[in-house]
Amino acid sequence: MSLKFSTSNESAIRAYIAGDKEAINLILANFQYFIRSRAGLLASLHDKSGIDYFDLELIGQSALITAVRTYRADATPFAPFATVVINNAMSNYIKQQTSLTNSLSRYGISLDTTLYDDNDNFMISDSIAKVVADNDLGIYSPAKIGFFEDLLPVSLTPLEIVIVKGKLAGYTYQELQKMLKLPKRKIDATIVSIKEKWRALLL
């Protein structure tokens, strides 16, 4: 079938279903503006999360191809169907990229601050990515890793996740303690637990 007169998405998808595989090129061309504008909008909205425009554009194009291949000519017009598929794919990508696990692997965090203002020698809050040297009597020395891929297999409790999220958001331990309304020893124990789980991965 010739596509010289088939300019709409509905005509093109019918041509594709009828066996004219070149029709997909017309559909891709017709959706380019939508995909690029949507990718630009979402990239600007999530700029602080490091969401890349070109990644979103590629996700949108891949989603459109998926929509073409999975579309069934029923009561639903193709254009709204494809739009939903593209939007869902981009939204799912953003959720994945902005998840706690992905944030840890992309940016890392440091717990290398004093735990309390009134006790600057209490260094149990030293970075998770540090280990105690056997001959340093509790002084923490840097480990050989710089990011938190090593922490990802660890199964954290809900409270431990809250602590990590809080540090990612820039809160101090005192601020977290006040927000969570927990005693100091509970915060201490939670940090110790996170550190011990991380160390267990090194064994």
How would you sum up this structure, described in words?
The structure is a single chain. By secondary structure, the protein is mostly helical. The chain has two domains: 9-98, Up-down Bundle (Four Helix Bundle (Hemerythrin (Met), subunit A)), CATH 1.20.120.1810; 108-202, no CATH class. It is built from eight helices and two strands; from the N terminus they run αααααββααα. The chain has helices at 9-17, 23-45, 53-70, 78-97, 100-107, 158-168, 173-180, 184-202; strands spanning 130-132, 140-142. The chain has a two-stranded antiparallel ribbon with strand order 1-2. α2 (23-45) runs antiparallel to α3 (53-70). The protein is elongated and about 70 Å long. The termini are far apart.
What is the 3D form? elongated
Q: Any idea how many domains? A: 2
Low-confidence stretches: 1-6, 107-152
Gyration radius from CA atoms, angstroms: 25 Å
Order of helices and strands: HHHHHEEHHH
Distance between the termini: 65 Å
Residue share in β-strands:
under 5%
The major sheet is characterized as:
2 strands, antiparallel
**What is the count of β-strands?**
2
Structural class: mainly alpha
Mean of residue pLDDT values: 72
Describe the strand arrangement of the main beta sheet, using strand numbers.
1-2
Helix content: 55-70%
The DSSP helix count reads 8
